[in-house]
Specification:
alpha+beta, 8-stranded antiparallel beta barrel, 2 helices, about 35% helix
Amino acid sequence: MFKILLSFTFPLVAVITAFITVCIVAVVIFAVRLVIGTNCYHYFYQNNPFYQTDTYWETTDGKITLYVTEGGNGKLYLEQNGVITEYHLEQPFKTYNVEIYSIEALEAIHAYSAESCCEVWKCTKIKDSEFTIVVDKTTFFEVGQEITFYKTRTQGDGSLP
């Protein structure tokens, strides 16, 4: 009888050791994901120009002005042939893409859709007071064109500076 009990002891120790090892590995993975995820989350929002509420960004020639409202939304003022046109801009959650929508198209169909989206930009080279976009889809520019914006002021009312 004693020999039978000893034969079960080895597998039981191996099972308990494996279980403890798996638990330790799971706790370490959870802790690492928590620390990395939290730091990435804060880095994204602190450095993303479209989450810097009430800021104005402008190109060097002054023909394109962005006003960031809140939550990745804002207004784009585009000057073409001396006429300034207003557009709505939106940044999908946790991305560096920016979508520009025609206000007239939004009012006509009451929804964000491919038909009302006239520009798609990708934010790159993000610094504290400037960032560059690369045009992915366009109505006004060329695909692949890079445009740099500079922070001009904070705390506005959404009107043109």
